[in-house]
Design goal:
Radius of gyration: 19 Å
Strand content: under 5%
Order of helices and strands: HHHHHHHHHHHH
Largest sheet: none
Oligomer: single chain
Number of strands: 0
Number of helices: 12
Helix content: over 70%
Structural class: mainly alpha
Shape: globular
Length: 252
C-alpha cells in the first residue's frame, strides 16, 4: 500500500511545481509592464496627493504612506489580476485548467503565488516613496514581510474570485469601481474620522481598510495589530479561496 501512495503524492507535488512554472511563463511577458505600472502608481499616488495637500501633519502622512502600499496591493490583486485572468475564460485556458488531472487547490495556489510575487515591485516602490517623501523607516522583519505577503495572497484570491464569477463584460466596471472607492471613499489614505461614522463602521468589515491597518501596524510600526482586522481579512481570504475553488470544480 505504501508503494502505491508515494508515487501519487510525488506526482501531486510535481504537478504543483509544473503549474507554478507554467503560470510564470504565461505571465513573464507582462511582468515588466506590471512592475512599471506599480512603481509609477505608487509614486504618483503619494506625491500627487501631497501636491493637493502640501501641509500634512504626521498622522496624515502616516496614513498616506501606508495607504500607498495598500492601494498598490489592492490594485494588483483586485484590479489588474482579474482583468488578465478573465481572458482565460474567453480563450479556453480556464476550461483547460479545469480539465487537468490535478487538485483544484494546486491550480489556484500556483496562480495566486505568481501574482503575489508580481505585486512585490509595488510594495518596494511604496516603501521607497514613503522614505523619500516623509523619511519613514520601513520594517523589514520576517513578521512584517509575512503579513504583507499574506495580504498580497488575500487580494489576489479576491481578484480570482471576481474574475471567475463576474461576466467579462462587467468585470472592468467592477474593478474600476473598486479602484475609485478604495482611493477616495475608504479610510486607507486618510483617517476614518473624516468619514461619516456609519460609513467608517461598514469599512471595518470590508477587506480593504483592515488590510491598510495591518500594513500600517507591521510595515510602518504604527500602532498595534488589531485582532478584528486579522479576522476580517482572514474571513475574506477564506471566502475568496472557497469561491474560486468552487468555480474551478463546478461543472457547467
Amino acid at each position: 500500500m505504501t508503494s502505491t501512495l508515494v508515487p501519487s503524492r510525488i506526482s501531486t507535488v510535481r504537478a504543483t511545481v509544473e503549474l507554478i512554472r507554467w503560470s510564470l511563463i504565461r505571465n513573464a511577458i507582462n511582468a515588466p509592464f506590471f512592475a512599471v505600472v506599480q512603481v509609477l502608481s505608487a509614486f504618483a499616488l503619494l506625491y500627487g496627493i501631497s501636491v493637493f495637500m502640501p501641509h500634512l501633519d504626521r498622522n496624515s502622512a502616516e496614513y498616506l504612506a501606508s495607504g500607498t502600499v495598500t492601494v498598490t496591493l489592492i490594485s494588483m490583486g483586485c484590479v489588474i489580476a482579474p482583468q488578465i485572468i478573465v481572458t482565460t475564460k474567453t480563450n479556453g485556458m480556464f476550461d483547460y485548467q479545469r480539465s487537468l488531472p490535478v487538485p483544484r487547490l494546486a491550480i489556484l495556489a500556483a496562480d495566486i503565488l505568481v501574482w503575489a510575487v508580481l505585486a512585490i515591485p509595488g510594495i518596494i516602490a511604496g516603501g521607497v516613496a514613503a522614505k523619500l517623501k516623509f523619511g519613514f523607516d520601513v520594517n523589514l522583519s520576517i513578521g512584517a514581510i509575512a503579513v504583507v505577503f499574506a495580504l498580497q495572497v488575500v487580494m489576489a484570491v479576491l481578484g480570482f474570485m471576481l474574475a471567475y464569477w463576474i461576466p467579462a463584460s462587467l468585470l472592468t466596471i467592477v474593478t474600476q469601481t473598486i479602484v475609485f472607492m478604495v482611493m477616495l471613499f475608504a479610510p486607507i489614505n486618510y483617517p476614518p474620522e473624516r468619514l461619516p461614522e456609519w460609513y467608517a463602521h461598514v469599512h471595518q468589515f470590508l477587506p480593504f481598510a483592515p488590510a491598510a491597518n495591518l500594513v500600517r501596524a507591521t510595515l510602518f510600526n504604527i500602532g498595534p495589530i488589531q485582532i478584528l482586522d486579522v479576522i476580517v481579512v482572514g474571513f475574506w481570504g477564506l471566502l475568496g479561496c472557497a469561491s474560486a475553488l468552487w468555480a474551478l470544480a463546478r461543472r457547467d
